[in-house]
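Re: that chain you flagged

S.,

Sorry for the slow reply, it's been a week of failed gels. I finally had a moment to sit down with the sequence you sent. For the record, here it is as I used it:
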Amino acid sequence: MMKKRSRLISTAWLLGLICLLVTAVAYSADAQFDDISAGKIYADLKERGVDVVVGAPVNIRRAYARYDTALGNGHGLNTGSADATKSAAALNSAFGQLKLTSDVRVRTANVGARIRYKLVGADQIGALPQLSNSAEDNLAIGIYMIWSERESVQTSVPTAFRIIAP
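Prediction finished late last night. Pasting the structure tokens below so you have them in one place:
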């Protein structure tokens, strides 16, 4: 019993160490970028001068409305919902028209991780040019799956993050 409990504690501790904190430069360090709800995306875009309900091009408004409906106030794509993933991919595609980027800085509990990312709906996997905790890059806005690797071995679960801040 004691060995099983210590293994659970070790696993929980390890999972805590590999958790990613994604911080866009324009936001405070306590912002919750893993909240990919339509409301948070709307607020971030509004801060950048884009109103996805009124003033944006029609394809962006439609993609946003479909995303909002598919997520239904949900905060993640980890539910396995095909509609949520498909609508996030369509929203990312529409965001490409805006040609907006976001400065992104990623920190991990232990330095030296390679940070990988994939725009939801895209096939290409990218990597930040530096290892954590100096990992910074300028990415197109969108909803990304982000994870860490060490020596080409994945050390965290891919997690959805919104990258919209300037």
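What I noticed first: Helices lie at 2-18, 38-47, 58-71, 82-95.

Talk soon,
D.
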